Amino acid sequence: MMRIGVRCDAMIELPDAWRRLPGIHICRLSPSETIEALDICIYLFSDGRAGLSQAVTEMSSTDQTKFCVFDQNYEEDIAILLVKAGCHGYSLYDAIDKLQSIVSTLSSGSYWVPRSVMEKVVEEITVDRDAIVGFLCGELSPREHEVARWIGRGLTNKRIAREMGVTERTVKAHLSNIFQKTPVNDRLELALLMKGELPERVRINLQ
Questions:
Q1: Angle (nearest 5°) at CA 198 between 193 and 203
Q2: The pTM is what?
Q3: Residues with Cβ < 8 Å from 46, sequence gap 6 or more?
């Protein structure tokens, strides 16, 4: 049984049809009730979006619960803010009758948001990612940065040495310097860094 909690702004009612959906236990949450035991938390916003601040706070604080927002008026900037905070679904009220499909989509790990929103979120994440990689690698020499790029492509020390026209010992020396100048500890973390996929440990240290 899917456990779904709904936070409604003032004067917003929980749709009766939702209570009859198969395989779903749905309830309206009070402002003080936690979302810890929920599979999905849904927010029904009024024109004033009174629950926006609480929604962003809750989305940013957990990765155990999926989140979905139904908004009375579409605003791309609000949608982008919510998705970046951790929202998996964003739609206008005219999609309320599609809740069963939305729940299925979110449960599978996918998103139910406008394509333009996802495109802009991905674009912003890519820019941020490139900036972080550039910052972390800013202290590397040109040769060290070249070694790091080859590691990102999955090459062995022997292959890197051949590509650069140096000895394997020189490649190992460059790697040692890279590990001292960046927050990564090994080849795998360096490869992830060069692909823009910061290791969890590195992300934590940067916060």
A1: 135
A2: 0.62
A3: 9, 10, 11, 12, 72
Q: What are phi and psi of 198, to 5 degrees?
A: -60, 130
**Does 137-206 match 2-113 at the fold level?**
no
Superfamily of domain 2-113: Response regulator (3.40.50.2300)
Nearest to 197 by CA among 137, 120, 125: 125
Question: What's the one-letter identity of residue 109?
Answer: G
Class of the CATH domain delimited by 137-206: mainly alpha
Question: CA 50, CA 194: separation in Å to the nearest integer?
Answer: 41
* Segment 138-161, tens digit of pLDDT: 788 889 989 998 988 888 899 999
In tens, the pLDDT along 17-56 reads 898 889 999 999 988 888 988 999 999 999 999 999 999 9
